[in-house]
Amino acid sequence: MKASNVTMKLHWDAVILAALKEDIPWEDVSANAVVPEDARGHADLIAKADGVVAGLPVFCRTFELLDEDVQIDLHVQEGERVTAGTLLAEVTGNLRALLSGERTALNFLQRMSGIATYTRQMAQLLEGTGTTLLDTRKTTPLLRSLEKYAVSVGGGSNHRFNLSDGVLLKDNHIGAAGGVRQAIGLARAYAPFVRRIEIEVETLEQLDEALDAGADIVMLDNMKGEALEEAVRRARGRAETEISGNVTRENLERYVALGVNYISSGALTHSAPILDVSLKHMKRI
User: Is the pLDDT score of 119 beyond 60?
Assistant: First the structure.
């Protein structure tokens, strides 16, 4: 997923406006009390830790929605690796808008940059292996488009975006359908022919059944050791393989040499720490 004016206006504006309304339900009492309505100001956006910057379009858009005349001079590019102390941007505009939008803009940028940083660290471990790093749907409600965008900035790829985006049969679907073969058969009959069928398996027996039923992708969920190695061997040439289940930066290396097609990690979005950034040296001009 890539940032664009269309994406921003159709999807992200609503999220940003909701966040601003949460923080400014009717007025910013502090800013309005000490700053004249027409006062202009300037502030520096500075990184306080090393990492990968993601979310600059959202940061900028937050202030644009409060002040259409705001001027933001970026000193780094989206996806750039920065070090603590780097001047990321300079912001000039209505001083009340700068004060009122500060926390919301920083919250988005910190969260998205943290995800991009964590993703970049994991993606680098897979460089040259032919294995694609994927995110999951374990995202913050209503912030999925922003978080998955940050994954892509960090060098990862997006798994299905939502439940309408692809067929992924998990353990509860299998239980509801009455078994692996039944679930695949029903999905194949219902879904358009252009959709691939992915199914989660937890044992070698389930894997064999999924392969015999014609699954396109098998998700090897929480399989370990010799069972996992055997599963990858059996699936090779018959279906694409995805490893999933508690994959983190700390344990990713154990899966690198297996030669699977995909590794998905919910940690990319649910466990990435923020990248600390700050608006400093704010002043009236």
Answer: yes
